[in-house]
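[job 4471] stage=fold_predict status=RUNNING
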Amino acid sequence: MTRVVLVVTVHLIAFGFAPPQKRTANSEHEVKAVFLFNFAQFVEWPSKSLPEPNSPIVIGILGKDPFGVYLEETIKDETVNGHPLVIERYTDPAKIKNCQILFITAGKTTRFDTIIKALKGRDILTVSDGNNFAKQGGMIRFITENNRIRLRINLKAVKASGITISSKLLQLSEIVD
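[job 4471] inference complete, writing structure tokens
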């Protein structure tokens, strides 16, 4: 697993995705937490999503939280373009109000299509590591292959939401329909 972290960290730094200087990630979920933080820096939401200059960017987790305290430690005292970062945890997609990035745990795999439908028309960047997530309408899927974490992005779903992903992030990713 240490090799996965090293490869991903080097890859992230090479493309300008430097993790916060708090501590070194040492598990797959810690690396994914750093990715979630970096998504906030390389994604633009429609102005209605962040109406006030200091509105928080909410990173939501739907289902069981796989990150432990690491995601909280990663975003602590961080801001992106003046927006503080906060974490909210959800058990039901109907309870999601203001959220910009939503990680959907793989335990919800059988309900991806239902969750995506419930979020349709909202400008929420959906992320998961569940099988076929991007093919079922999710936006970004984490894939672990050959000791590397890669991104698979459903650009059609991203564009339909009004979200814009930086070309730097797209260069790191496999694009699917």
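[job 4471] summary: Strands lie at 43-44, 57-62, 79-80, 83-90, 101-104, 125-128, 140-145, 148-154, 164-165, 173-176.
[job 4471] exit 0
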